[in-house]
Amino acid sequence: MRLAVIIFLLALAGQAVLARAQEQPAGTYSVELEAEAREVGKSLRCVVCQNQSIEDSAAPLAADMRQLVRERLAAGESPDQVRAFMTNRYGNFVLLRPPLQLDTLFLWFGPGLFILCAGACWWIYLRPQATHPEPAAPLTQDEVQRLRVHLLDDASE
């Protein structure tokens, strides 16, 4: 049993070392490159968190994306080239401000369209009825007689 616990703890420690080894230390790149990488990272969405930039996200995939941005900038690519690479890899969704294109129209106009539809439904539901229903026709003598018979029968029981 002790041996199993020791093996488990060693495997756990090995995982922590491997996870830490994936990220390159921040001091490896120049200050200018780090600032440029942060600016590019703030314009890219974390595809796991979906509403955070890769700079603000703590997800492992965001760390990989940050590393990829730094590597490509260090290789001499411009920030626009890095954004284009990330867009080719992950689609327009990765951009925090996607371009206005045919495939992103719903992203841009979907919220406004939803609010308009909800407002129209709310207005239709709450508006006063413009038409008043016609009053029912008066009962005929035969109907009055049958109603009295039924009411008298129910009262006698």
**Spatial separation of the terminal alpha carbons:** 84 Å
* C-alpha Rg (nearest Å): 34 Å
- Hey, roughly how much beta strand do the residues contain? under 5%
Overall CATH class of the domain at 28-121: Mainly Alpha
CATH homologous superfamily (4th level) name of the domain at 28-121? Cytochrome C biogenesis protein
Concise synopsis of the structure shown:
The chain has 157 residues and is mainly alpha-helical. The chain is built from 6 helices and no strands.
Structure description:
There is one protein chain. The protein has 157 residues and is mainly alpha-helical. The protein has a domain at 28-121: Helicase, Ruva Protein, domain 3. The protein is 62% helix and 0% strand. The protein has 6 helices and no strands. The chain has helices at 2-22, 31-42, 60-74, 79-90, 105-126, 141-156. Helix 2 crosses helix 3. The longest helix is centred in the last third of the chain and has 22 residues, at 105-126. It is elongated. The termini are far apart. The model has no long low-confidence stretch (mean pLDDT 84).
Features:
157 residues, mainly alpha, Helicase, Ruva Protein, domain 3, 6 helices, elongated
Question: Secondary-structure blueprint of this entry?
Answer:
Elements: H1 2-22, H2 31-42, H3 60-74, H4 79-90, H5 105-126, H6 141-156
Helix pairs in contact: 2-3
